[in-house]
Structures are given as structure tokens and as C-alpha cells.
Amino acid sequence: MPESSDPNTQLALPAQQTVLRLLENLVSSVPSSTEALSTVPQERANEILRMSGLKAGALSAGLAIAPGPVGMLTVIPDLIQVWNIQRQMVSDIAACYGKSAQLNPQMMVYCLFRHGAAMLARDVLVRVGERMILKQGSLRVMQKVLQRVSIKMTQKAIGKSISRWVPVVGPIVVGGYSMIDTRSVGKTAIETFSRVIEIEPDELV
Questions:
Q1: Higher model confidence: residue 135 or residue 194?
Q2: Which residues pair with 191 in a beta bridge?
Q3: Dihedral angle sign, alpha carbons of residues 21, 117, 9, 64
Q4: Range of the domain at 103
């Protein structure tokens, strides 16, 4: 049987493994921030969000200009660079609220992927009134979380890759998606760091 030319089929399984490795590297450390504690953190956080969204959108649109197979080669670099923009945005938002010390890998995972993976609200961070309770899970728990996130992110990457086959309109769609996605991450970070954060003790298993 001839190999399918469907972009979905070509990307699916190897892409999920690639995305999982990227996620593991992504959350292995938290970027530092030069942001100072702000006297008006909500305003400063919204500005950080706005600028990061524009930056991510412009980057993705630029990478998607080349259509067809050439454009497909930019899918993974696009993911990496947009996630790095979002990581720095989360770190800067935490800093302007004076919460850098509480930003750990689990918190980063929550902020980056909460809007696209609902189970994170159960497995990583839970809102109780005006408090955010961080479940500082074991390595095994985090691996399971990242595996589930990788499936969601692979589906989104495939959707973005299909848009790359459409000349002119494709870059607009891809850039708009990255901008909206980055803004969703920023809103989650603002909602999280504007509240009292409590961290549960580490699990042993």
C-alpha cells in the first residue's frame, strides 16, 4: 500500500514522541526574569501579555510563510520558539507579582497548558476560594501529566501544520493562533499569581 500523503498521518506518532521530549526539556528549568516587583502588577502583567502575544504571533506567521512541505519543516521550530516566549512571559508575570520563588516546573506546566488540558486543574493546581493549591507531585505523576499534555499539543501542532499548506492565508491563521494561545497562557499566569499560592509537600512516590 502506498504511503499516505495526508499531513495528519505523516506527523501523528513520531510527532507525539518529539513533542513529549520537547515538553520534558521545556519544564526541566524555569527561566529567570529581570522584571521588578510592580506597584501595579495587574497593569504590568497585561502589558507583558500583550507584547508576548504580538511577538509569538509575528514569529509563527513568519515561519509559516513558506507553503507546503517546506513549511512543514517549521512546525517543530515554531513550537519551541513560541513555548520559549510563553515560558519567559510566565516568569516575567510571576516576577511582577513578586512570586518568582513560587514558580517551579509544575507551576510552569500549569500556566503553559491549563487552557488546553483540563486535567491539569485536577493533577497540578487547584483553586480553593482565593488560594491556589499547588500539588507538588512525584516524578511519575509529572511524567503522566506530560504524556497527556503531549497528545493535546500534538493535535494542535497537526492543525497548525495543515494551515501551512494554504498560501497567503496560512501564515495569518498560524500567527493568529499563536497570539491567541499566548494570551491564554498569560491570562492563566495572571489568574494564578494574583492569588495566594500554597504548595503541598512533595509526594514520595
A1: 194
A2: none
A3: negative
A4: 37-199
